């Protein structure tokens, strides 16, 4: 059974197969119940009379049978994820005219594996003194994992209580013997509740009825995901894709404390690997959703300010004023075995923080966040000039981090910032889109300085710096042999990283290029080597490093394309923007109205459907928010 269901709620997610089972897989698509970077349920297996079941339809399972001896019973299995955890209801219906006794067994285990252990590269991390334990309880079992001050638990409870619970080093088994009346049924209710390390104890009794969990989660989703009004004659496919995206965003929200400590619901980046606060992802997601869900921006900005860099710490690239790249809560981060508890290796989170702060103020008229976060904003500007490199290099630059990320732009995989012959650029690296974000951030912050903070002198200095940066990009980035198309980056020797990359499209989004250059870049992105029919590729086809299934060297990213659509519209290229939008919507429609994190870069003419990228996260926040950019473009066209 290869079907897979993913449920997401408030920073917890469950990934189960088509039977509703969990087997403890690793690699590309790990299954289990996850909370705060730990797998709290690694086995969840149902057997009746000692045998597995066969799926007839989603949630409908039967034992083996034949045409002459049909299955004696059917199992109706329902699952829901909500505040109490993973809730399950099992209804076993007797098809016959005589009472029927059945033996039901659930097998459960919790390995508490850190997500970094489960990735496809199969890295191994020592865990000295880490120990697992199990404790039976009248209604189920509790699993524990302790390592030093790290304690994570998983509670499993059932009603009616099991007849027997057997726990051992490899997990636990919960057993019932049920008598089904003739043409009648019996019902079991179970809840698996994760209690992550570092969180308050559980709230309320379990199990909780699955219908209650489902109804509460659905009400939360509905309150957030009410579709925005569509313009007259709107594309119905786009309307459905937007509705799906908003529903995904509702589930992907995770709690993150602001400066006062109160938890706020911010966009977690995506499932399975990134369900936590990510600077770049959370900022761009909030920016995409700003016309329709400004509350995301209002939560994301103070949450990021609360973890803004305060000191110099090379182990995690923390610097004063720098906005965090990601925040992790797992065991390996807690004990410093990975640097990501708070990791600051992002060149663009800091300018994007400033962009969103002004954009929120402009869109809503609410100046309170800009006033409250003035100190954080000024510190972010100071970082751009000091450690960010504007003073020393004239550009925002980063150096590869051997203990973390080699590349610290949105294309952050190893080798993503490469020359035309495929070599990784060496630092300090100035990627082109970060210069656009910095330009935009300086100009927008100047508006806040003049209009909200009452500091016109500071505003003038920021505008002058933006003008210098704009002139430098026009001077240093255009590649003569490519008709002036901007290079992906400048390396540490100020040589152009001379590959044709989609990053240049972000300069349109930021408004850095003059009108003629911007329109030329926009039209170039719609040429066949860039535009596949589904979207704009990260690298133009035909170049040596291009690969349609490379993470950043030929694939198609919906959020990247949403940025490009907004930029095309900004430069008056409405037809080109509509063409990219149609490609993205078409890709979503062929994927259940959902845009995944990334698609293969194969040409639409070569295959009738978009080719999935094998390691794509889905749902992913900025992909879920991307259709809202397309809707805003459609509404602007209607106006």
Please name the defining characteristics of this protein.
639 residues; alpha+beta; Beta-galactosidase, Chain A, domain 5; Glycosyltransferase; 32% helix; globular
Give an account of the 3D structure.
The protein contains 17 helices and 26 strands. The strands form 7 sheets. It has an 8-stranded antiparallel beta sheet. The chain has a 4-stranded antiparallel beta sheet with strand order 1-2-3-4. The chain has a 4-stranded antiparallel beta sheet with strand order 5-10-15-14, with no helix packed on it. The relative contact order is 0.09. It is globular and about 85 Å long. Helix 7 runs antiparallel to helix 9 and helix 15 packs parallel to helix 17. The protein is an alpha+beta fold and 639 residues long. This is Glycogen debranching enzyme. It comes from Murinocardiopsis flavida.
Biggest sheet: strands, sense, closure? 8 strands, antiparallel
Specify the helix fraction band.
Answer: 25-40%
Relative strand content: 15-25%
CATH fold title of the largest domain: Glycosyltransferase
**β-strand number:** 26
- The average pLDDT score comes to 96
**How would you describe the shape?**
globular
End-to-end C-alpha gap: 49 Å
Number of helices: 17
CATH architecture classification of the largest domain: Alpha/alpha barrel
Calculate Rg over CA atoms.
26 Å
CATH class of the largest domain: Mainly Alpha
Number of domains: 2
* Low-confidence segments: none
Domain Mannosylglycerate hydrolase MGH1-like glycoside hydrolase: 427-592
Pfam family, one: MGH1-like_GH
Protein name: Glycogen debranching enzyme
Domain Putative glycogen debranching enzyme N-terminal: 7-190
């Amino acid at each position: 059974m290869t079907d897979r269901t993913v449920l997401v709620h408030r920073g917890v997610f469950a990934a189960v197969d088509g039977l509703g089972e969990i087997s403890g897989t690793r690699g590309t698509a790990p299954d289990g119940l996850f909370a705060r970077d730990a797998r709290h349920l690694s086995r969840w297996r149902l057997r009746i009379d000692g045998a597995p079941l066969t799926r007839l339809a989603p949630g409908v399972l039967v034992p083996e049978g034949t045409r002459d001896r049909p299955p004696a019973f059917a199992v109706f299995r329902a699952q829901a994820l909500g505040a109490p955890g993973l809730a399950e209801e099992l209804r076993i219906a007797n098809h016959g005219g005589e009472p029927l006794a059945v033996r039901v067994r659930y097998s459960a285990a919790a390995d508490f594996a850190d997500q970094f252990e489960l990735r496809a590269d199969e890295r191994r991390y020592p865990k000295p003194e880490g120990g697992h334990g199990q404790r039976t309880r009248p209604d189920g079992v509790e699993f524990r994992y302790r390592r030093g001050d790290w304690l994570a638990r998983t509670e499993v409870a059932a009603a009616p209580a099991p007849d027997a619970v057997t726990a051992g080093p490899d997990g636990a088994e919960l057993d019932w013997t049920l008598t089904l009346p003739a043409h009648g049924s019996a019902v079991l209710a179970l809840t698996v509740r994760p209690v992550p390390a570092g969180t308050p104890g559980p709230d309320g009794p379990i199990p909780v009825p699955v219908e209650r969990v489902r109804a509460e989660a659905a009400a939360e989703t509905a309150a957030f995901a009410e579709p925005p009004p569509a313009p007259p004659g709107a594309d119905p496919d786009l309307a459905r894709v937007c509705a799906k995206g908003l529903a995904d965003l509702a589930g992907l929200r995770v709690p993150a404390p602001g400066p006062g400590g109160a938890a706020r619901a911010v966009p977690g980046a995506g499932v399975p690997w990134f369900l936590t606060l990510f600077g770049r992802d959370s900022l761009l997601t909030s920016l995409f959703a700003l016309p329709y869900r400004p509350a995301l921006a209002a939560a994301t900005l103070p949450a990021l300010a609360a973890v803004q860099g305060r000191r110099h710490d090379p182990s995690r690239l923390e610097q004063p004023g720098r906005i965090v790249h990601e925040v992790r809560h797992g065991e390996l981060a807690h004990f410093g075995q990975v640097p990501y508890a708070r990791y600051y290796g992002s060149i663009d989170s800091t300018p994007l923080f400033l962009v969103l702060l002004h954009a929120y103020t402009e869109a809503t008229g609410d100046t309170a966040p800009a006033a409250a976060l003035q100190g954080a904003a000024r510190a972010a500007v100071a970082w751009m000039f000091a450690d960010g490199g504007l003073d020393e290099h004239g550009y925002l630059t980063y150096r590869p981090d051997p203990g973390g990320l080699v590349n610290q732009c949105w294309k952050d995989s190893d080798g993503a910032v490469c020359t035309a012959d495929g070599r990784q650029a060496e630092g300090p690296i100035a990627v082109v889109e970060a210069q656009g974000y910095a330009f935009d951030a300086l100009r927008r912050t100047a508006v806040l300085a003049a209009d909200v903070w009452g500091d016109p002198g500071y505003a003038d200095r920021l505008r002058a710096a933006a003008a210098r940066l704009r002139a430098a990009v026009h001077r240093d980035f255009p590649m003569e042999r490519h008709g002036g198309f901007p290079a992906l980056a400048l390396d540490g020797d100020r040589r152009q990283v001379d590959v044709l990359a989609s990053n240049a499209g972000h300069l349109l989004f930021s408004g850095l290029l003059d009108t003629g250059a911007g329109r030329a870049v926009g039209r170039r992105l719609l040429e066949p080597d860039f535009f596949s029919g589904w979207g704009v590729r990260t690298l133009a086809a035909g170049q040596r490093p291009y690969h349609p299934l490379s993470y950043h060297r030929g694939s198609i990213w919906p959020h990247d394309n949403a940025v490009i659509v907004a930029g095309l519209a900004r430069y008056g290229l409405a037809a080109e923007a509509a063409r990219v939008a149609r490609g993205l919507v078409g890709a979503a429609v062929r994927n259940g109205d959902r845009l995944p994190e990334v698609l293969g870069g194969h040409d639409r003419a070569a295959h009738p459907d978009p080719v999935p990228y094998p390691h794509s996260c889905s749902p992913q926040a900025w992909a879920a928010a991307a259709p809202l950019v397309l809707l805003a473009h459609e509404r602007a066209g209607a106006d």
